[in-house]
Amino acid sequence: MMAVLLLGTVSALVYAAAAVAQRGAAARTALPGARGYRRSGIWWTSLLLNALGALLHTAALRYGSLVAVQMLGVLTLVAAPVLSAALLRSPMSAEQWRGTALTVAGVAGLLVLPRSAGSDRAPDTGALLGAVLLTAGVLGVTTAAAGVTRRGPASSLWYAAAAGVAFAAASALAQVAVLELADGDGLLRRSGGGLPWPAVLAGAGVLCLAPAGLALCQLGYRGGLEAPLATVTLVNPVFATLIGVVFGDRYPTDPGTALAALVAAVAAGRGVCVLARAEAREGDSGEPQQREPGRVRGGGLREIPAPAAESAAGHCT
C-alpha cells in the first residue's frame, strides 16, 4: 500500500507540472498546429514530464487497483493550479479555489464510495474487446462534440473529456499488460517461448491512446488550465471505473451508495462549471489590458497575452 501511495502521489505531482507546461505551450506558441509545438521548448518539457508521470503511474498500477491509483490522480487538480499561480506570482481567486475544492471533493467521493470486488487477474479477450469498443465509441462522441462546438470554453471541455477517456483507457490497458507480464512477486513472468499476446495488444493500445490523450489535452488547454484539467481529472477515474465493470469488477448498488455517488457527481460537475466561468470571466476582464506586443518571424508585430509571455512553464525552462 505504501508503494501505491508513494508512486501515485509523485506521479500526480509530475502530471501537474506537465499540465502547467502544456498550458504554457498552448499560450505561447505563435505558429498553429503541430509545427508550432515542435519549435517550443516548453512543449518538449511537457512531453518529458508526461513520460515520467506515465512510468510512475504504470509502476503504481502493478501494486494497486486501477481505481485506487486513479483516485490519487485527484492531487493533480490541486497541485497544478497552485503551481501555476506560484510561478506566475498571480494568486488564485476565491472562485477558482471554490471550484477546485468542489471538484476535488466530488471526484474523491466518487472514488471512495464504490468498493471494487474485482480481482488482480488480467481480463479475458472478450472483456478487452469490450473495453476497446467502449473507448472508441465514447472517444468518437466527445471529439465530435468538440468539433461541432469548435472554439470556445465548451470545445475545450469536450477535448478535455476526450483526453480523460483516452488516459483512463491507456491506464487500464497498461495494468493489463503489467498483470500479464509480471508474476505475484512483481518479477517478469516466463512466457514459455511464446509471445504474451494479451500484453502485446494491450501495450499497442497504450502506445495509441497515450499520445492521443496528450494531443487532446493540448487542444483543451487552449481554453485555460483549471477547467480543462478539472474535466480530465473527473472523466479519467469515472471512465476507469466503467472499464473496471467491463473487466469484471463489481460495485455496490444499494440506494444509499447510489445517492451519495449522485451527490458527489453533482459537486464535481458544479466545480468544473465554476472553474470554467471563472476562467471565462478572467479572460473577458483581462483581455484589453493584458495584451502586449510580440514579434513573430517575418517581421511585424503580433499581440500575445501577457500571461503567455510569462507562463509558468516558461520559468521552468
Explain this structure to me?
- The protein is 75% helix and 3% strand.
- It has 13 helices and 2 strands; from the N terminus they run αααααααααααββαα.
- The chain has helices at residues 2-28, 33-38, 41-63, 66-72, 74-88, 94-112, 125-149, 153-181, 197-220, 226-246, 255-286, 306-309, 312-316, and strands spanning 291-295, 301-305.
- Strands 1-2 form a two-stranded antiparallel ribbon.
- A hairpin with a 5-residue loop joins strand 1 and strand 2 (301-305).
- The protein is globular.
- The relative contact order is 0.17.
- Residues 286-317 have low confidence and may be disordered.
H-E string: HHHHHHHHHHHEEHH
What is the residue-averaged pLDDT? 75
The proportion of strand residues reads under 5%
Helix content: over 70%
Largest sheet: 2 strands, antiparallel
N- and C-termini, Cα separation: 35 Å
Structural class: mainly alpha
Uncertain runs with pLDDT below 50, 5 residues or more? 286-317
Describe, in short, the structure shown:
The chain crosses the membrane at residues 42-61, 68-90, 96-113, 125-145, 157-179, 199-221, 227-247, 259-278. The protein is mainly alpha-helical and 317 residues long. It is 75% helix and 3% strand.
Topology diagram in text:
Layout: H1 2-28, H2 33-38, H3 41-63, H4 66-72, H5 74-88, H6 94-112, H7 125-149, H8 153-181, H9 197-220, H10 226-246, H11 255-286, E1 291-295, E2 301-305, H12 306-309, H13 312-316
Antiparallel strand pairs: 1-2
Helix pairs in contact: 1-3, 1-4, 1-5, 3-8, 4-6, 4-10, 5-6, 5-10, 6-10, 6-11, 7-8, 8-9, 8-10, 10-11
